[in-house]
Design goal:
Radius of gyration: 37 Å
Order of helices and strands: HHH
Oligomer: single chain
Number of helices: 3
Helix content: over 70%
Strand content: under 5%
Largest sheet: none
Number of strands: 0
Shape: rod-shaped
Distance between the termini: 21 Å
């Protein structure tokens, strides 16, 4: 409040009589406005980067879900093919006269079943690992968005603090000129 009263009192006396005074305050006001615009731009840029990173992270999480779904579908297809191979092997064994309780026949069916289960689990493992990679990427995107937001906020604060120092210098010069 003291500042405003001092400026008003001295402006009346100095405004018309001292062009240097008017110029210094005009440039100080322009510098303050520029600092505010710059600070807002830094702040807004940080927020926009955070929003973009958040959107990209959501897309990446969605991709991770689709990778898992595709892996489950492929594993289901491997299981279907394994069952068909076992059925075909059992039919061939029965047609050739072998017994369903013959250890050789059972071992062949067990080998087919084991290989099929191994392939099914391998497909699920690979899709799960790929999905986890996408989830890590989403986490990193979110973290980079948060970092951009913080950087924008700090940059805006630094701009405002720096301009406050310049304003203080101008105020000090004003007071020294108008103090008896």
């Amino acid at each position: 409040m003291e500042f405003i009263l001092t400026v008003l009192e001295n402006t009346r006396d100095n405004l018309l009589g001292d062009p240097e005074f008017v110029g210094s305050w005009v440039f100080t006001a322009l510098a303050a406005a520029g600092s505010l615009v710059s600070a807002y731009g830094s702040y807004k840029a940080g927020r926009d980067q955070q929003e973009a990173a958040s959107d990209a992270a959501a897309d990446t999480r969605w991709n991770a879900g689709k990778i898992r779904e595709r892996g489950q579908m492929e594993a289901g297809e491997v299981k279907r093919q394994t069952n068909r191979a076992m059925s075909d092997a059992a039919a061939i064994q029965a047609a050739s006269g072998f017994s369903a309780s013959d250890p050789t026949d059972l071992r062949q069916l067990a080998e087919i079943s084991g290989a099929g289960k191994w392939n099914e689990l391998a497909v699920l493992y690979e899709s799960n690992m790929a999905a986890q990679g996408e989830e890590r990427a989403a986490k990193n995107l979110r973290a980079s968005g948060q970092a951009a937001k913080r950087a924008g906020t700090y940059s805006a604060a630094g701009t405002l603090i720096g301009s406050a120092g310049r304003f203080q210098d101008a105020w000090g010069a004003f007071k020294s000129r108008n103090t008896p």
